[in-house]
## 1
Amino acid sequence: MENKKGFADRFDWTLAFIILLFLIISLLAISSAQTTGQYATNFVFKQLFWYGVGVVIIAMAMFFEPEQYKKLSWPIYGTGVFLLFLLFILPGSLEIVAERNHAKSWFHLPFGIGSIQPAEFMKTFYILGLARLITIHHEKNLIKTVKTDLILLVKIGVTLIIPLAFILKQPDLGTSLVFLAITAALIIVAGITWKIILPIFLGGIGMGGLLLWMAVYMQDFLVNVFGFDPYQSARIYSWLDPYSYANDEGMHLITSLNAIGSGEIFGKGYGERIVYVPENHTDFIFAVIGEEYGFVGASIVVSLYFLLIFHLTKITLQLKDAYSTYVSAGIIAMITFHVFENIGMTIQLLPITGIPLPFISYGGSSLMGNMLAIGLVFSMKFHHRTYMFAKNEDD
């Protein structure tokens, strides 16, 4: 079925307006965060530049149709894995490789542009590959059984473990958790029987609880046996009791809590912050919003994320082909987890993992990765009517 509507009718203006609101919030928050003078760089203009690049990425993403993404999913996935592999084998002493906060996760870009983090793009590449894997599996196994579901689960596990191993080696625990969240969401959406996934999910929860306990009481065991870095354990016990480590590991969380709490209901106003929070233009941008705009301003930001997730969910339910549905569901899971983890770590609900706040925190790689994901949603909404009856086109 061909879509006879023009560009203006097919373009998602609501989603574009939501992204525009995030741009405004991001520039306001970053410009205020810079008054601390932690860095000499003007991150407002750089963020605006990356948003401009993001718009180009969205336009390029819309150029391709869902069926083309389906065909290119594995080459795109493979490209992301190759970039992670390069980071793994290249020594940190090379100028092309950047190492920050104990993690070798970035490539330096020439001409002073900055650096790029392949893992941020790999999240979306992984979603594309996983969506194709699930779609093809269901097309080949029209009758679902426990056996076919187990086979699908093994396929998903293999697809996950390859990029996850490289990212854990960097090490980047926060990004690794995002991959796990995406995987869990798509396993549920894929319709795998609860007879299989319920024991796995319960086992995963139990393992997570055990690791938290070991991070507090058996730190040497985790370091010596499993190769955990000591700073990762420090993030756990400083999260549970930050005031006992106020001069080192717990300082960041304490300043974030003080900043958000001091904003009270209506905040102190733009540029009127008193509490100094390190890296407040990136991972802790929510602390700036909470202090300057209070509970009301923070609630507006959270509500905007709810609106974004609601709109993306609405689009997902409108999509007619399975592949596009899985891709969109994976993107929803990725953004939702990012928001929950970032805001949660600033208010001591979750441990600090270094995950940025989508579309608001400064960061070229994070913003471009999220804009690529949103670009896929734009594309699938723009083209989806053409593929209303294309479910069996590959048969």
## 2
Amino acid sequence: MEDLIAEHIVVDGMNVIGSRPDGWWRDRDGAARRLLAKLQRLAAATGDKVTLVLDGRPLADVAEGLHDGVQVVYARRAGRDAGDDRLVELVAHLPEPERVRAITSDRALAARVRDLGATVAGAGGFLELLESY
């Protein structure tokens, strides 16, 4: 699983959260906070830069910005593919997108970030990796 780690990991938050039917839909905000906590442990253990991209309204207690080693960003608009567009925008503006590993199981999003030079890992395998941190 260690091959899922890169120098900059960009996570499609809702895709990762939604990849496991663990009842996350009953507490979407709590699921986002739990994923952030797992990503913070990963960032602390690996030293990699980690960015979490979330859809929907910003969490009241998690503003856009750096949170214990994890950069949190939100979709700039509501609607279909808003988070995907934000993730692509982010990767496109990075100086070395080839050093990015995007985490998503969304095939269309994966193709878009691969076109920018990033690599992609699926949500399920990434969640398994997170359990070891």
## 3
Amino acid sequence: MATDFAHRLKELRVSKDLTQKEFSELLKISQSAISMYESGQREPTLEVLDIFTDFFKVDMNYITGKSKNQASLDIVSPGPENPNPDEDMDKKLIAAYHKAPEHIQKIVTVSLEPYIEEKY
């Protein structure tokens, strides 16, 4: 993992046009640690890997070299006050459907028919 991670970390840092010093200051990680990570002399802990993946918004498999696909992680996780944000959206969509004129309801129904599973 060390050489793949080292290469990816430097690649990601450079893509943000950051020096090691700027990067270390942003993440509150010493510049010498950043240098050692990028040269493959030091392996990051899971906690440090998590900091890097959050900062660059990339998948753990990408930064460690296990995947070649740079999957973007612009996903907002629900906060504790709303553990299921899809439920709110479902309620809003159902309410909007019922408020819509009949011809719109028919269009929506016909459009969604292929996705409705019949349960017996």
